[in-house]
Amino acid sequence: MAVRTSTKLAAAGLVALAVLAGCAADKPKPASLEPLESQIAGRQIWNTRLSDVTFPLLVTVRAGRFHVAADNGTVVALEAATGREIWRGDAGGRLSAGVGSDGRYAAVVTRDNELVVMDGGSVTWRAKLESPVVTAPLVAGERVFIVGVDRIVHAFDVLDGRRLWTLKRPGDALTLSQAGVLAAYKDTLLVGQGARLLGLDPLKGTVRWDTALTTPRGTNEVERLADLVGPPSRTGSVFCMRSFQNAVGCIDAERGTLKWVQNGGGVEAVGGNDEYVVSADGSDRITARKRASGELAWTSEMLLNRAVSAPVAMGTTVVFGDYEGLLHFMAQDTGKPLLRLPTDGSRVAAPPVLSDSNLLVVTRAGGVFAFRPE
Predict the structure, then answer these.
(1) Which residues is 262 bridged to in the sheet?
(2) What is the pLDDT at residue 317?
(3) How many angstroms separate the CA atoms of 13 and 334, rounded?
(4) What is the distance between the alpha carbons of residues 196 and 194, in angstroms, rounded to a whole number?
(5) Which of 206, 261, 290, 337 has its CA 20 to 30 A from that of 113?
(6) What's the distance, Cα to Cα, between the start and end of the chain in Å?
(7) Which residues are bridge partners to 176 per DSSP?
(8) Are 326 and 343 within 8 A, CB to CB?
(9) What pLDDT does residue 96 have?
């Protein structure tokens, strides 16, 4: 986990700091897994392989298609039900963020700070950015939206790459080099700015509302680092998310109001459905809270220190990936383990995503797997 800080003396305006989460000399030993007798059925339905995935990947699902990418710049659209490759493109450089897609256009960002937009696998345009990007672009409403690690928001025309507007707001110099919140609700663009969520007019880039999820505390910039971590978990107008190492809470995007917030550490995004918000803290202790109120529902220490991914809710289960590429299916209402499925043995690289009854998982080694619980 890295952070970045701006400085007037740096030509690029940004200097990377090699700060890692959990940098103690002796890391805690991962929890040993007890033998599990499967309580539900599930099977792998297809798999394929790309290059390694070490950047903050967001897998986009649109119209029965999974859009995925790899370090080497490969971007692929796959049919969710069968794994059939629909198209493949090359961004022309190693990636730092991706993939955003509206079902037709796909957008990624390279490590050379270049936004690349594709149509059917062919590059349609490129745009040079002023700072690094680790949050996947959002493609919506014939626009491509970008938020850099400097927290500056940009909007581009998806057809020709014209920059339509830029929003820059004052904030702390130190920022989190981890995927943040960039999402859409009706005609409002949602953007994380530190520990605050902004609701923007996507046509003009003006602020409609500005809501703090939590108030950062600490004696220095590192301790006060509380950027919102994406992707958020949405049910209706309510978006639930994590503030890095600070809290978990929910904001109603219809009104721009805070529903609830609960203190708690952790570095990965949250998941859930209309009943529960589920997340893992810094030691991978799993916590489920009632979505309506934030009231604690259950906790589990089954996956302690197993470097779990952000979760995804699937039916009556919640699914986490871990550092060994294992998928853990747990009952949403109790946390009881129900099923365990393997991938390729490497760490799950992105939050698992759903398309109908198909669950897609991408690993650090570039494995792309689709599962179907039954």
Answers:
(1) 248
(2) 95
(3) 48
(4) 5
(5) 206
(6) 36
(7) 3
(8) yes
(9) 96
Beta pairing, strands 153-157 & 163-167: antiparallel
The C-alpha R_g of the chain, in whole angstroms, comes to 19
Burial label, 35 (beta-carbon count in 10 A; 0-12, 13-18, 19+): exposed
80-101 mean pLDDT: 96
Encoded amino acid at 116, one letter: V
Burial 321-351 (b: 16+ CB within 10 A, else e): bbbbbbbbbbbbeebebbbebebbebbbbbb
Residues of the chain by 3-state class (helix, strand, coil), percent to 5: 0, 50, 50
pTM of the model: 0.91
Question: What count of other Cβ atoms lies within 10 Å of the Cβ of residue 148?
Answer: 24
DSSP-based three-state secondary structure for 181: coil
pLDDT bracket for residue 27 (50, 70, 90): confident
Residue with tokens 């699914």: 319
**Cβ distance 270 to 277 under 8 Å?**
yes
Query: What integer pLDDT is reported at residue 81 of this predicted model?
Result: 93
Residue 9 or 302, more confident: 302
User: What per-residue confidence (pLDDT) applies to 5?
Assistant: 43
pLDDT mean over 123-138? 96
Cα–Cα distance measured from residue 243 to residue 80, given in angstroms and rounded to the nearest whole number:
31
Strand ordering across the sheet containing 228-235? 228-235, 238-243, 247-252, 257-263
3-state SS, one letter per residue, for 90-146: ECCCCEEEEEEECCCEEEEEECCCEEEEEECCEEEEEEECCCCCCCCCEEECCEEEE
| DSSP conformation class of 20 | -
User: Rounded to an integer, what is the distance from CA 142 to the centroid of its chain?
Assistant: 22
Instruction: For the chain, give the percent of residues with pLDDT over 90.
Output: 84
Name which of 22-26, 89-93, 148-152 the model is least confident about.
22-26
